[in-house]
Amino acid sequence: MNNPVSVVIRNLTPTFNEGRAAVKRSIGQDLTVEADIFREGHDIIRASLKWRRLHGQVWNETAMMPLGNDRWRGTFPLLQIGICEYTIEAWGDEFLSWQEEVQKKFDAGLYELTNEALEGAQIIEAGARRASGSPDAEILTKLARRAQTVSAHELRSFCEDPELVALMSYWANRELSTTLHPFRKVRVDPRRASFSAWYEFFPRSAEGKADSGSKFRDCLNRIEDAKAMGFDVIYFPPIHPIGETNRKGRNNSLKCEPGEPGVPYAIGNFRQGKNGGGHRDVAPELGTLEDFEWLVKETRRRHLEIALDFAINCSPDHPYVHEHPEWFFKHPDGSIKYAENPPKKYEDVYPLNFYNKNWKALWEELSDVLLFWCARGVTIFRVDNPHTKPVAFWEWVIAKVQTAYPEAIFLSEAFTRPKMMHELAKIGFTQSYTYFTWRNTKQELTDYFTELTQTEVKDYFRPNLFTNTPDILPEFLQQGGRPAFLIRAVLAATLSTTYGIYSGFELCENIAIPGKEEYLDSEKYQFKARDWNAPKNIKKFLTSLNRIRHENRALQFFETLRFHPIDNDRILFYSKATPCKENILLIVVNLDPFQTQSGYLQVPLKNFGWLENNAYEVEDLLSGEHFFWSGSQNYVSIDPLTRPAHIFRVRRWLGRKKGLDHYA
Amino acid sequence: MNNPVSVVIRNLTPTFNEGRAAVKRSIGQDLTVEADIFREGHDIIRASLKWRRLHGQVWNETAMMPLGNDRWRGTFPLLQIGICEYTIEAWGDEFLSWQEEVQKKFDAGLYELTNEALEGAQIIEAGARRASGSPDAEILTKLARRAQTVSAHELRSFCEDPELVALMSYWANRELSTTLHPFRKVRVDPRRASFSAWYEFFPRSAEGKADSGSKFRDCLNRIEDAKAMGFDVIYFPPIHPIGETNRKGRNNSLKCEPGEPGVPYAIGNFRQGKNGGGHRDVAPELGTLEDFEWLVKETRRRHLEIALDFAINCSPDHPYVHEHPEWFFKHPDGSIKYAENPPKKYEDVYPLNFYNKNWKALWEELSDVLLFWCARGVTIFRVDNPHTKPVAFWEWVIAKVQTAYPEAIFLSEAFTRPKMMHELAKIGFTQSYTYFTWRNTKQELTDYFTELTQTEVKDYFRPNLFTNTPDILPEFLQQGGRPAFLIRAVLAATLSTTYGIYSGFELCENIAIPGKEEYLDSEKYQFKARDWNAPKNIKKFLTSLNRIRHENRALQFFETLRFHPIDNDRILFYSKATPCKENILLIVVNLDPFQTQSGYLQVPLKNFGWLENNAYEVEDLLSGEHFFWSGSQNYVSIDPLTRPAHIFRVRRWLGRKKGLDHYA
Prior knowledge:
The structure is a homodimer.
Chain A: E1 8-13, E2 23-26, E3 30-38, E4 45-53, E5 60-63, E6 65-68, E7 71-77, E8 82-92, H1 94-107, H2 114-130, H3 136-149, H4 152-158, H5 162-170, E9 178-179, E10 184-189, H6 191-194, E11 196-200, H7 220-229, E12 233-236, H8 289-301, E13 305-310, H9 319-323, E14 339-341, E15 344-346, H10 359-375, E16 380-384, H11 391-404, E17 409-413, H12 418-426, E18 431-432, H13 442-454, E19 464-466, H14 475-495, E20 498-502, H15 539-551, E21 562-563, E22 571-577, E23 584-590, E24 597-602, E25 615-620, E26 626-630, E27 633-638, E28 645-657, E29 660-663
Parallel strand pairs in A: 2-10, 11-12, 11-20, 12-13, 13-16, 16-17, 17-18, 19-20
Antiparallel strand pairs in A: 1-3, 3-7, 4-5, 4-8, 6-7, 8-9, 8-10, 14-15, 21-22, 22-23, 23-28, 24-27, 25-26, 25-28, 28-29
Helix pairs in contact in A: 1-2, 1-4, 2-3, 10-11, 14-15
């Protein structure tokens, strides 16, 4: 070591995985960093927060401020998508320590300060040398000369001279500074990563025909309908060739009748497609790759994005089976193993062995598949069952894809144990599916979303709240009828900033296989007739929700969610606000799809910086009704059959001037 | 990478400073480690906790056990003083996963298991290859052969064969295991580091003469007296030559009269001693280095240790001033700066500049000083003001000394801001002075000791509770008379496992400079007359406390301290217990030195695993009185003038047999 470490920098936040994983933010957001910073003795410390693009050459920097008890804070803006690295540099500041010494001595009545003046001159001269080549050098040289000749009284004000202080701050002696290692990282995602509404549909079901499938060229109506509802990401289940061997029939039957379309998750058919019939091809029944590229372009023209499903499943007809048999698990007799979860058998899917002797080739191939689709305009991937593949693979492949396409977004569909879900988020997944689907009661929702928004989880885990999926028709939706769909839509759209629905939700489809949470006659296995404008649909309601999300910045911040008291266990009451509180929403949801529920809620006036006697306007953004409230306690009554929630925008009333009400 | 990382290992505890600092334990203790351990898919995971001497060749290992929710725990014993490194190795276990598959399939009624049997044979054969060279190889080869021929029914029991399971567990396939990096460390200290009682005295005051100093050869009486009271570490303030230039007189006077002995902390007099008159010499008025070595040997013969003060202070007469002027701070005119804390001046002390151009030589020299005294039988150092020297210096020098003398103990005298105090403990100090001296009320003591014993602090910070020091005569002792000394002694001796007193405490000396917490006529500056057996001394009481500490293992555990309710704010009620609860103490201290206080306390029967109606014997170890209690609520009344505390040993009463009471 050339210089010993002089400053201790510890307990930096946000941090997790011992500082080795990147914090998540999206473009335009800030990152606020805190740390304990201290050193021996009494020198005055300065600390600088420094950031740059990953492996960049030049640091940006901003001063950190002490909060007391040796805790420091600094904030920097995130203006470029990609990975940004940051660190802290701190040092005992020679000039400020000298200034304080002069102040203290003079103020204590010690006027013999010749040595101090000469010492100051030396410190300033050294500053001038560091500034050499800049016009500041000359100014500092003059100031140093002045320091040599000033009287004690003059020295007292000289040491606080604003020009001197500013220049010595800029040209500080950092020879003995300490820089935090290893550098920390923040991953800056596109805005869509932290604020978006997803709409999932099977391209083959675009037109809702009972006995045949739609093609890519038929999908624009569905996409425009989704756009009209306010969705901005269109997510397709796998679009690749579907295997024929052991193909499943309707309702997951082992027997497949001729003409049945098969499950899109049984990927690969070496007989189809230009690129081998695997993950780089589209199923010919949907059209050609050119058709798909046309659809991507048309969708983008409408300011929506298409997300693809990245499902690492191989049907027995996948080209890998022949080209790379070494990538699969084998029986002792050399035959390839199908997937099993004893006693269940999945004979139409061969799992890949990520640890096979030729694993590097497999990993490279899978990353190439992702890059193939990125090159064709798809940079959003919903990843199927990532928890059944090595975490190390995801860490590697996401970093690789995002190096080439920094805007790429990966949504983790890991419905699994909590620690695995969180780890996948920490190592790179942009968004994550959640347990939301199974959280229904007030206590469950409060506990879960308090954990997601009020703990370190908020810095790495972005919940994408799906109300339903092709695999999950929750019991609450099966039982609760149309009101249940409205309730879950409000919750999904307001508890998090990203959410999604699987098509059919807007039609309140709720027929399950008895005793299961799976759809009866699921379109995973068959063509499906649908009237996309069927009566009693909730498309208008969804449209309102998405409009409210766009018009209210409060719904674009995730971690400002707070739950508040209401004296009824069937009503959930929470608020969302922007950090500066210029947009505040109070959201009240009747969780009971059958009965009207009422109660007294406690508006958290203190959280908004309001007084107990402030009057405020309350506007229900769903109904357009206006109310005038004052005080914290107010009454609500909600009939789920008409509208199961209030989304109140609240504004403090400042008074009436020239016949007009004014609001803060 | 040769193999991809297959298992995720996270959130290891205990941990602090992001895993880079060593946990503290003492010899004979265990270390219990927990971590989140998981991987993709459904394979059965095994995890092994591994440990060895730092940089050792061979790992010891023990199986970790799953606690649920992917959390695992393992414990290993610490049997050797020094640094021990440890890590976790975890893997998906091929054999156990195969075993589970066979069990599940068979139990689900699938009896066609030929492939499974052959696969098992392959797995066992591979185990035999790993065992080659051991007698196990042959047994495994036979078992593999059997696997090839067994029926499905036989396979079901064969896969659970105890010999097979044991051998396949031992010879597990760890080719794809993951090992946690970097390795973690635990510092194993001698027992004295975590359990000892310190007695501090100035050697020149050993005989208590008013006008002249004692010598090393006169110290044995004082040491034997301390031993009789039950102390086991004798701590001397600096014993080195004392500077003459600007020597301070009595009560810190700037004027020193001829014959005044000077402050031992103004170290160095180039006119004295064989080794330059600095930190390697003893003051000639105390005797010779040989006399000191004789005293060390005599003290050790009595099973006590001498601790020296490591004070990096230089008087203007220190040999370094002439030999290494570059090690000091200088005025612009080239003269050396004395210590200042404006407006205070310390003209008898020159501080060292740890960042001078020749800093490496300074650091080496200081480490050589410590090694010099280690070689002379002193391995316990009380370090003066470590927070005014670089943290990096302490980290380096403590590691260096402990590499040569693993038993070395460093006590940090950092009365400073909390984060610096904690950091010094994290980077290597064995024990630390605390804020105990200024914590007097029930709330203050409860809060402080809850933080020290119930948070991660317990894994790195060992509080050595000093009741007083030559610099600190707390107001409580000044005001509260003899009862205050008894109260603080009980608290110090029972709240922590290490504590100390500065001599004079046992005589209840409490005359301060008015308005300050400093001793009047402090022996730091002068000779001091004392009758070491003065009337009203509390030597018997201290002797009882130390005896109780030795006889009750509960007082040798730090983190089992718990506070319990009592309905009087002037009474502190807490318990100490061994982990297995075979020794339980209830300690009740009247914090009011003036008045009798009484109240109802709540015995935490549940904590001991007792029932509400259990009867138990309560023995006051200070008075010898016995009581019989039952239920949790009991009454105490404590007169501080007779005895300000109860130390109850409690034992559950099992019943009477043959005329004798039996206890658990």
